[in-house]
What we know:
Blueprint: E1 2-6, H1 11-14, H2 18-26, E2 30-34, H3 40-45, E3 50-51, H4 62-72, E4 76-80, H5 84-93, E5 97-100, E6 126-128, E7 144-146, E8 165-170, H6 178-189, E9 193-198, E10 214-217, H7 222-225, E11 231-234, H8 238-246, E12 251-253, H9 260-269, E13 273-275, H10 283-293, H11 300-313, H12 318-324
Parallel strand pairs: 1-2, 1-4, 2-3, 4-5, 5-6, 6-7, 8-9, 8-11, 9-10, 11-12, 12-13
Amino acid sequence: MRVLFASLASVGHTYPLIPLAIAARDAGHEVHFAVGDAVHEPLAANGLRPFRPADAFYEIYPEDLEPELARLKPDLVVHEWGLPGAAVAAHRAGIPGLWHGFGRMIPAGIGFDLPTRNAEAPGRPHVDICPPSLQDPDFLAEPRVPLRPVPFSPPSAPLTWGGQQVVYLTLGTAFGSAELLGTAIRGLAALDVHVVVATGRIRPEELGAVPSNVTVRSWVSQADLLPDVDVVVHHGGSGTTLGALAVGAPQLLLPQGADQFANAEAVVGAGAGLRLLGDEASADAIADQVRALLPHSRNAHRDAARVLAEEIAAMPSPEDVARRLPDFQ
Length: 329
């Protein structure tokens, strides 16, 4: 079976698809990946045959993908929620398609066409990596294929921090500012913890000198780091939100845009974390909130995060779903 995956060319949109693509490859399927070349390196390293259709760098439109569908003749197209053009192209070509989510259902008004409302590419199931208890209740009525969210990250240099508790801080790769990141570092550095910072779109040198209990890297392999952290402080991106929940780590969310506010609301509503909005996110407030989330004898947020971790662990694995892909032809 030949399977074509397609996504926007960004970490937050491509990486959630990689575990299923790898599982499909391991199941013996021929896998190709249509995406801008900014994310080709990790795809190629995993034998997923990345290519850039037409002149696409980030977005892929139906007209970009249609010649590639005629060339490859895939049996199935798996396309993420941010790429309705792939759904349209597959529908026009008469090729079955599967939507692939990256978190909770996309909130209205953030700049994406909601896949359930796209009249030109109707009625196909969604691979849903969000645990049902956190998913939008209306979306749970849609045709869904549950899939456990498995963090994917290219490897990064090893990190060490002695025996201290660890707080992981990131504002992701799309939003955030050096000012907010610096504020968070000042607050967290005052705690008796080691702080690991992934700067993402912010250059580390913009932060200046940092205290000795802070490690700053432009890129950190979240998949490797998260099992060892005690608290995650972040922007509320879907990948970091689900990655922290999968390991049962409580979160402090500092949402900046897109779906991050909805993600923060869901995590707080589930009791698995706290949030600070806008000017609330002072250094002192961040320190106080994280202090409340660190391990101690009575921590309801940590208990709630562990319940969600158990729910995620019980979801079907990428290997389970890969075995079902022929059913969706």
